[in-house]
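[stage:ingest] chain + small molecule (nickel (II) ion)
[stage:ingest] validated
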Amino acid sequence: MTQLTRISISLENSLLEAFDRRNSAKGYATRSEAIRDLIRDRLIKEANERGEGEQVAVVTLVYDHHARELVSRLVDKAHHHHDLVVSSLHVHLGERHCLEVSVLRGPADRVRHLGDELLATKGVLHGDITYTSGEQALRQWH
Ligand code: NI
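[stage:predict] done
[stage:export] tokens:
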């Protein structure tokens, strides 16, 4: 069982009130759970910025499938880095537009590089990358 330590921190009243309002709006049952989430989020982001360890990224891309060169460039990139692409989901949004969600997993620097490269591909209309950690990092905190 995970060992817990109780800590005490001092905050300005106004900061605490804003934090409590935010937690309530987001549905947190306790301050502790909200603080744990913020700490994990910060640790994961900083590890990713340092390019350390295994990273998992969810890449969302929206593009016009009539742009055939774009589609072929995206497929080429995915095949070139097939060891990083765990899975992809393709949704036909309508007559023209496609949504693609890909999960990448591997060394942080390579995952970050591929994610950035996919988003920067000419013709991608909208995109985003969400990073999280692999099994190893999460295990040490839980
Ligand atoms: Ni499509």
